[in-house]
Amino acid sequence: MATLLRSKLSNVATSVSNKSQAKMSGMFARMGFQAATDEEAVGFAHCDDLDMEHRQGLQMDILKSEGGEEGAEPPLEGDIHYQRDGTGPLPPSASKEGGVCSELSGQGKPKITAWEAGWNVTNAIQGMFVLGLPYAILHGGYLGLFLIIFAAVVCCYTGKILIACLYEENEDGEIVRVRDSYVDIANACCAPRFPTLGGRIVNVAQIIELVMTCILYVVVSGNLMYNSFPNLPVSQKSWSIIATAVLLPCAFLKNLKAVSKFSLLCTLAHFVINILVIAYCLSRARDWAWDKVKFYIDVKKFPISIGIIVFSYTSQIFLPSLEGNMQNPKEFHCMMNWTHIAACILKGLFALVAYLTWADETKEVITDNLPSTIRAVVNIFLVAKALLSYPLPFFAAVEVLERSLFQDGNRAFFPNCYGGDGRLKSWGLTLRCALVVFTLLMAIYVPHFALLMGLTGSLTGAGLCFLLPSLFHLKLLWRKLLWHHVFFDVAIFVIGGICSVSGFIHSLEGLIEAFRTNAED
């Protein structure tokens, strides 16, 4: 009897605790603070049948659960757990085809305002990697500033045309939403001859960007800790190993509910850090080196700067789900305008002010230029943010890999890595650990933040933000486009292609040279 009583009391306490967490999550959502809105937009907010359970755990508001066994307590709001065998509680409107997109865009579900959507986009394009923009100005001068503006205009435009590809005109002449995700758009462009080719290309690009983002987090963690404590007998590689040891538990993640609680704190901390850097730069305004900002460019290193700038604007991958979850989708264009205008102004000012302060001494991560008295404190906060942000892209990358290689029905390349009870098999866990170790090895052998960021921006950033949206827009809607839209799409595709190829080649050359140097050492 005593055991039964203790069991019931424990269950009641757990239920109250979980419901309290769900209500707090809903309260923050109503305030406009959405979970999983970290800057790298690294794919964890998109809904390409990628992370249904994870997205349910990070829902924009309290989800009202329905159904359940008779007499049993219904699933907790906002507490959908990650189960692969399909036995976990799922929303009634979620389907295998529609996935979480159907849930997010379904009728009667909580919607977000344009301001809340703007908060998501702002966090995606105003994130941690803006710390590399002053380094882009170092090699590009005024042309680098122009590119920050140009990239904002182009990414805003391609975001709008990507959403336009979600809609078609029905028999009654009404514009209706017929697609839910970036992958759906890609598959529609390749149908009927290759109905899944486009989605696979997009998924490969996502995986590369997600894994490279994880690598960048490890690189920046090692870099910041090494420069914060230069007197300690610990090398940058050793700091990267320590950071990876802290991140190894990510391999055991089943959902991101616990991690998502730190998302808001990370974002707010980053804004505070940016303000501190700008405040320090303004305090040295009398010593600004205006004569160092010139119109010439470093032909060898400037293409890398293009990739850095493009990578800082990547947000297209989650825009379809965001637009589908807005109360009034007609406000999407206006929201994109003011978010990208704000991003352009803030990024331009941050990059210019920081470069004017340190001029030719500007480093790859601008906080490394700060005086030692405040550098250590600022860098420790940045390292904490990097480590807390790492699980998001890692989890999304694992989801894409598992679904495409191990869980794609008869088309899967390998056996399912989950058992009949939904638990991860030991060899599946080993593969996850191997992915964490891979990010470490890349960070050790190529510990160059700017080169890796430039390579990622040139390869996947330009592809997902410039090339594919313009190509899809021409393919799906070319009969209804006005001549100036066709001109813009073609111009963006050509210019984006040239910048992408140039930046990729120069970044790859720099990485190969750095890899050889590290191998010799």
UniProtKB/TrEMBL annotation:
Membrane topology: Multi-pass membrane protein
Entry GO terms, CC: cytoplasmic vesicle membrane; inhibitory synapse; presynapse; vacuolar membrane
Superkingdom of source: Eukaryota
InterPro entries noted in UniProt: AA_transpt_TM
Residues spanning the membrane: 143-167, 207-226, 262-282, 302-322, 334-356, 376-401, 429-446, 452-474, 486-505
Keywords: Cell projection, Cytoplasmic vesicle, Membrane, Neurotransmitter transport, Synapse, Transmembrane, Transmembrane helix, Transport
Domain Amino acid transporter transmembrane: 111-507
Region annotation Disordered: where it falls in the sequence: 66-99
UniProt-annotated location(s): Cytoplasmic vesicle membrane; Presynapse
GO MF annotations, alphabetized: gamma-aminobutyric acid:proton antiporter activity; glycine transmembrane transporter activity; L-amino acid transmembrane transporter activity
Statement: the UniProt record of this protein carries the keyword rRNA-binding: no
GO annotation, biological process: gamma-aminobutyric acid import; neurotransmitter transport
Catalyzed chemical reaction(s): 4-aminobutanoate(out) + n H(+)(in) = 4-aminobutanoate(in) + n H(+)(out); beta-alanine(out) + n H(+)(in) = beta-alanine(in) + n H(+)(out); glycine(out) + n H(+)(in) = glycine(in) + n H(+)(out)
Primary localisation category: membrane
UniProt entry tagged with the keyword Membrane: yes
Family (UniProt): Belongs to the amino acid/polyamine transporter 2 family.
Free-text function comment from the UniProt entry: Antiporter that exchanges vesicular protons for cytosolic 4-aminobutanoate or to a lesser extend glycine, thus allowing their secretion from nerve terminals. The transport is equally dependent on the chemical and electrical components of the proton gradient. May also transport beta-alanine. Acidification of GABAergic synaptic vesicles is a prerequisite for 4-aminobutanoate uptake.
Protein name in the entry: Vesicular inhibitory amino acid transporter
Organism of this sequence: Cepphus grylle
Gene of this entry: Slc32a1_1
